[in-house]
Design goal:
This protein is of the alpha/beta class. The chain is 35% helix and 23% strand. It has a six-stranded parallel β-sheet with strand order 2-1-3-4-5-6, sandwiched between helices. The longest helix has 26 residues. The structure holds 5'-deoxyadenosine (5AD) and iron/sulfur cluster.
Length: 441
């Protein structure tokens, strides 16, 4: 039996897909090289913005054609949907895509073995599980091994912040931190099986407060310091952080922990205090800038990244200009920016002052041009410098490989094949907005 998993959305979904693949392998499945060869297809879905959710349904429509073509050849295809669309849409999934066999929320995918057993006993039923279960799914998942030099490691899940535009607190549930020892054990296994970089994941990762072996709550700074003691771990990152939870202990890690990469994704969302308040973010633009000052004091070479939303309900030209101002002050080296998209069930979807699409589009273009300018400026500044690069995949041309610099820039270089999953010093020779090129030194 062969499986194919298609992942939509964030890095947490990439991690979850890896864990789902782990479950399937223990059940004897192997990975299909292409979707039409798969006996079991799982779409691991994202609901963060309307576009992401709609894409899932249009891809499911295409998948149904493949299912029918396989049926004409006498082949059965089991179709499953997992992730945040399941949690948000619930039974609606089945109404919009009646050929789906099962749907599991982000906190119930560890129940996949029983679901597949039920389906094999009785075809043509729809099984859905959108519980927020009392049991910890991580206790039920098979051991996790590295699939490359860089691995994701979920340390925290869910969110209690309830930003007024965001579905995450409803789809991923309340905040939960994995115990320190469970994280360290998974880290040791990933490192032993070949990872040199760990990216600690959580929807609100810097609010981490997992219990240690003696039952004390420990923060993310503690976890990072413990991880840094593990032999063989050369790089540590974490994402995504909430500005109000950026405490001094965590900031001090940028001074003291050499494995912690000098790059931080810290979403500000808007530069306008009025909009930040309407978003229910617990920071002002001033608070945010103070955090950046402290980070730069801990490590002057730190590079910042952020998420932005333009066209939040009630956003005026003045509010939007405040967003451009903060970009000019922080000079982000990378960023993601989005048009506000109303999500059913969130408070902002019902707020007055919804912004017309045309204005959202104009503002996004202006913001992105500014962000790209800073990104290109930073990339250009890297030319001539030597950087340690972790090579993760083959490039398009023969002999070419793609890796990541400490600042998460993609770097292309021609190297021997054994460079994969290793950190190699590279002299940067060229830069564009989206990537660097370089040579081994
Ligand atoms: N509309 C637009 N962007 C959103 N994000 C989250 N919810 C919405 C929404 N309703 C963005 C935020 C968040 C990123 C992951 O997605 O910027 O940080
Ligand atoms: Fe969503 Fe992040 Fe706000 Fe939590 S902190 S509600 S995940 S945007």
């Amino acid at each position: 039996m062969k499986y194919y998993i298609k992942t939509f959305g964030c890095q947490m979904n990439v991690y979850d897909s890896g864990r789902i693949a782990g479950i399937l392998k223990t059940l004897g499945y192997t990975e299909a090289s292409a979707l039409p060869e798969a006996d079991l297809v799982i779409f691991n879905t994202c609901h963060i913005r309307e576009k992401a959710a709609e894409k899932v349904f249009s891809d499911l429509g295409r998948l149904n054609i493949i299912r029918e073509e396989r049926a004409a050849r006498g082949l059965d295809t089991v179709i499953g949907v997992t992730g945040c669309v399941v949690q948000a849409e619930d039974e609606q999934i089945w109404k919009r895509a009646p050929f789906v066999d099962f749907a599991l929320g982000p906190l119930t995918y560890h129940r996949l073995p029983e679901v597949l057993a039920k389906i094999s006993r009785k075809k043509n039923q729809f099984i859905i599980d959108t519980d927020f279960p009392a049991e910890d799914k991580f206790d039920f998942l098979p051991e996790n091994y590295a699939s490359g030099g860089c691995s994701f490691l979920a340390v925290q899940e869910g969110c209690n912040n309830f930003c007024t535009y965001c579905v995450v607190p409803y789809t991923r549930g309340a905040e939960y931190s994995r115990p320190v020892e469970a994280v360290l054990e998974e880290a040791r296994r990933l490192i032993k099986s070949g990872s040199v970089e760990l990216n600690l994941l959580g929807q609100n990762v810097n609010s981490y407060h997992g219990e240690d072996a003696s039952g004390h709550e420990r923060n993310l700074a503690y976890l990072i310091r413990r991880l840094a003691e593990i032999d063989g771990l050369q790089r540590i990152r974490y994402t995504t952080s909430y500005p109000a939870d950026m405490d001094d202990e965590l900031i001090s890690c940028y001074r003291d922990v050499p494995q912690l990469m000098p790059f931080l994704h810290l979403p500000v969302q808007s530069g306008s205090d009025r909009i930040l308040k309407a978003m229910n973010r617990r920071h002002t633009s001033g608070d945010y800038l103070k955090i950046i000052d402290k980070l730069k004091a801990a490590n002057p070479n730190i590079g910042m990244s952020s998420d932005f939303i333009v066209g939040f309900p009630g956003e005026t030209d003045t509010d939007f200009r405040a967003t451009l101002d903060i970009v000019n002050k922080v000079q982000y080296i990378q960023a993601f920016s989005f048009k506000y998209s109303p999500r059913p069930g969130t408070p902002a979807a019902l707020m007055p002052g919804q912004i017309p699409e045309k204005i959202k589009k104009e503002r996004l273009e202006i913001l992105q041009n500014l962000l790209f300018d800073y990104q290109l400026h930073f990339n250009n500044q890297c030319v001539g410098k030597t950087m340690p690069v972790l090579f993760e995949q083959k490039g398009r041309h023969k002999g070419q490989f793609i890796g990541r610099t400490p600042y998460m820039q993609n770097l292309h270089a021609e190297l021997p094949a054994d460079c994969l999953n290793h950190i190699i010093n590279i002299k940067v020779t060229g830069a564009t907005t989206n990537s660097l090129t370089g040579k081994g030194v």
